[in-house]
Amino acid sequence: SPSHEPTTLPQSFSPSRTFDQDAKQIRQILDQYRLSPDYYGIPWRLRRTFEPIHAERVSQWFFEQGGRGALKSMGSRLQNVLVASAIISVLRMMQGDRVRTLILSDSPERLGEWRRGLQECLGISRSDFGAQQGVALFEAPEAVSQRADRLISNGNTPLILIDNSEDKVHLSLLQYPFWLAFAPVVDEIPAYY
Q1: CA dihedral sign of residues 160, 138, 98, 46
Q2: Into how many domains does the chain fold?
Q3: Burial class for 134, CB neighbours closer than 10 Å (0-12, 13-18, 19+)
């Protein structure tokens, strides 16, 4: 009979985890991305020009927010994808392929931009996207939450990315160990008048 006990993460993945113990390694990786980009590197490693502003945002998410919080949008989805790609790459370097990325956006078109951007930034292919793969795309927060629960019960670690088109963060998503919401800047907020 299936267990009805709540799913728990290994201690190293608890929501209170900070990256202080990994700070040196994370900073070295970010410096490498900034100073010596490898445009033809192996899959899941950042393959794009990485500016100081991108490194600042990634550092803020790791060290000030402990892997859980919102960052101001970079002004375009492609720039947000670049920041997210660096985070994905660092987490996968540290945790391996147990890190699974779940992306929430309100339209198939925006999810398509995320897919194409991640393919370009991380050197991954369409086969890396899907329910049992490294990246999954969602239009509904409930589906993200269900998938995150399944990942955790299978010993994986979800990283939830919330597109700046989402005007609200579903509370169920805040319980997971790693999440990043891109907060829209004033120019990106739709007018409702």
Answers
A1: negative
A2: 1
A3: buried
pLDDT confidence of residue 184: 87
Q: What is the dihedral of CA 146, 150, 151, 157, to 10 degrees?
A: 70
Contact 123, 43 (CB under 8 A): yes
Which residue matches tokens 């899959």? 43
Q: Dump pLDDT digits (tens) for 166-182.
A: 888 899 999 999 999 99
Give CA–CA dist 32/55, Å, rounded.
11
**CA atoms of 132 and 67, how far apart (whole Å):** 23
Task: Give the total residue count for the chain.
Answer: 193
Largest interatomic CA distance in the chain: 54
Cα distance between residue 47 and residue 41, in whole Å: 7
- Provide the 3-class DSSP secondary structure of residue 68: strand
Cα first-last separation, the chain: 54
In a domain? residue 79: yes
Angle, helix 52-59 to helix 23-35, in steps of 10 degrees: 160
pTM reported for the whole predicted model: 0.87
Host domain of residue 33: 21-186
Rounded Cα distance between 190 and 3, Å, is 45
